[in-house]
Amino acid sequence: MPPARAAVLCGLGGWLPSRVVTNEELSRRLDTSDAWIRTRTGITQRYAAGPGEATSDLAVAAGRRALRSAGAPEADAVVVATTTPDRSCPATAPLVADRLGLAGACAFDVGAVCTGFVYGLASAAGLIAAGVAERVLLIGADTYSTIVDPEDRANAIIFGDGAGAVVLRAGSPTEPGAVGHFDLGSDGAGEELIMVAAGGSRRRPAPGPAERPDGYFAMRGKEVYRHAVTRMTASARASLALAGLKTDDIDRLVPHQANARILRSVAQELELPPDRLVSNVATVGNTGAASVPLALADAAARDGLRPGERVLLTAFGGGLTWGSCLLTWPALGPTIHPHDGGGTPAP
Ligand code: UT7
């Protein structure tokens, strides 16, 4: 049974740092090429945080845009989904809340790697359904450039930095913007497929450069690729089944932007016409927990999401984790394109 109080999307914003990293730039310092990257991933460029620029800086900028689009700088809960928090302790969300003038709000981080934003939506829906919050600011933000080894050609070409945010208010499950029909899952047996080995309580930080490579992000790309396709497809189907819908009822599929080939395969498996697939991976790369809200902001700013359209979100990431949910696209205030504004420091 859907909760009496649903979380209703009422604001959206995205932010990208100013530095663009092109395939040509990567090809100059790594054994790779623009042709290889485009063919294998569909990515042409990605963005990188500048020196000293942290995840919270991007999160604050995206959060401010989302609050503006929601018409008021108010929220009584702030949730940040991230794999690259400013520090391992404390969480990044309280700092973000404070910088946005929301000090005192309930604030915590969600760690579900690239599925973090969908898990965050479910957390926000839970806070609202339980009466804990009336208005939640949910931000997906990551700076993978801070954990990917710049010499690791397999990962350096894929990942980019960015942040995307939504505001969710308490409302009715039947109104446009209400998020629901969540399917969330995990498989910890796949922990090693996507991991930063050192730095946590299992392998404790040790000083000295010899330990440094374990502190980098590592991914078993081919296996992850297969899981990404099968898990996102199955999870999307599970959400549809919960809602009693078929693929044909979906106007827009917005998957985690992992790799253009993965997205095409998921759409194919679901027998969804390619023009219903929303993708911005070509211009931003894989931005982790930011990827779904950044794809939403990109599409909304280009009129690629229209009020009344039925939208299916699906994501997959380290853990392993996966998740999907549905909403009918609401009428929102203007969405600034995430690419607009890069070049100025995050406020
Ligand atoms: O966000 C969380 C979820 N993440 C994902 O969904 C990412 C999933 N995985 C992928 O997107 C792909 O597996 C990659 C893009 C990471 C790799 O593409 P692939 O088509 O699976 O390539 P591969 O790993 O099978 O490598 C094929 C070849 C290898 O050479 P050999 O062993 O065949 O001689 C690699 O060493 O390509 C080589 N290679 C590269 N060559 C040029 C790997 N990276 C590069 C590179 N440039 N950047």
UniProtKB/TrEMBL annotation:
Enzyme Commission number(s): 2.3.1.180
Name the active site residues: C114, H256, N286
Q: What is its main location?
A: cytoplasm
Q: Where is the signal peptide?
A: none
Instruction: Report the Gene3D superfamilies cross-referenced here.
Output: 3.40.47.10
* Residues in coiled coil: none
Region ACP-binding: start-end pairs: 257-261
What the record says about its domains?
A: The last Arg residue of the ACP-binding site is essential for the weak association between ACP/AcpP and FabH.
**What PANTHER family does this protein's entry cite?**
3-OXOACYL-[ACYL-CARRIER-PROTEIN] SYNTHASE 3 (PTHR34069), BETA-KETOACYL-[ACYL-CARRIER-PROTEIN] SYNTHASE III (PTHR34069:SF2)
Protein name from the UniProt record: Beta-ketoacyl-[acyl-carrier-protein] synthase III
